[in-house]
């Protein structure tokens, strides 16, 4: 190989290396992994690992815990009870798609007599109720009831526009035949363009002291956008006490709600 050829090869090699380095410097920024909300890293505008910022998932330190205001059991017939936990979500625009819970029941001596476990969702903002029906505890009578969530919640942010548009109202609430075969009737209206599937509706009856004395539940497979439905709740036995207030709570998973 001649000296001139060697020099040409040297210049070519230098040029190739230079172009390679230049190309790498240009391409390298685009080779970086694009931040996402599922890469198990804190990056982009995230406030924590895969949460906060533009992620749907809210960071646990950004949200307030759900408050358990009370939990009680209500006799339906001899040996059968309904259990209700009344809670408050303090977070205006955060909800939970799915979470496990547990009711525990004790007798008048605070001796454990049974439990009921389940799974539910948590709606955004405000008070809501978790209802369990047909609880049997043998010959015991549940006097004390406790409620707790049994797993770490996964909070998801909910669109403020969706929350503002999604309106469900209850009207024309009427209790009849309280002392014989009680029946509570009402009208529920979906005043939005969203279809709401799997609507669980809980009724609570209050006496003059502001205490809940009985409860019931009904269910709708679907409450379509702009639809009104008549609903009713029944009890197999008379309801004791002076009922002065009724509360009806529509419960639905906001993450299942879709536009018409």
TrEMBL record:
UniProt keyword terms in alphabetical order: Membrane, Transmembrane, Transmembrane helix
Origin superkingdom: Bacteria
Residue intervals passing through the bilayer: 9-31
Protein name: Glucose/sorbosone dehydrogenase
């Amino acid at each position: 190989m001649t000296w001139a050829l060697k020099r040409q090869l040297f210049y070519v090699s230098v040029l190739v290396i230079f172009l390679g380095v230049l190309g790498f410097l240009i391409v390298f920024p685009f080779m970086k992994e694009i931040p996402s909300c599922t890469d198990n890293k804190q990056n982009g505008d995230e406030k924590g690992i895969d949460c906060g910022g533009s992620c749907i998932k809210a960071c646990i330190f950004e949200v307030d815990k759900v408050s358990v205001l009370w939990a009680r059991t209500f006799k339906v017939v001899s040996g059968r009870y309904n259990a209700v936990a009344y809670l408050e979500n303090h977070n205006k625009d955060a909800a939970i798609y799915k979470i496990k819970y547990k009711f525990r029941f004790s007798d008048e001596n605070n001796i454990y007599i049974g439990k009921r476990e389940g799974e539910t969702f948590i709606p955004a903002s405000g008070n809501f109720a978790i209802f369990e029906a047909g609880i049997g505890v043998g010959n015991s009578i549940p006097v004390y009831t406790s409620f707790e969530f049994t797993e770490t919640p996964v909070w998801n942010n909910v669109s403020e526009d969706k929350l503002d548009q999604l309106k469900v109202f209850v009207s024309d609430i009427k209790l009849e035949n309280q002392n014989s075969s009680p029946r509570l009737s009402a009208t529920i209206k979906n005043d939005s363009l969203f279809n709401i599937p799997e609507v669980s509706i809980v009724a609570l009856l209050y006496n003059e002291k502001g205490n809940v004395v009985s409860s019931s539940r009904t269910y709708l497979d679907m409450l379509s956008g702009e639809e009104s439905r008549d609903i009713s709740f029944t009890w197999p036995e008379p309801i004791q006490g002076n009922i002065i207030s009724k509360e009806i709570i529509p419960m639905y998973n906001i993450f299942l709600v879709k536009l018409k």
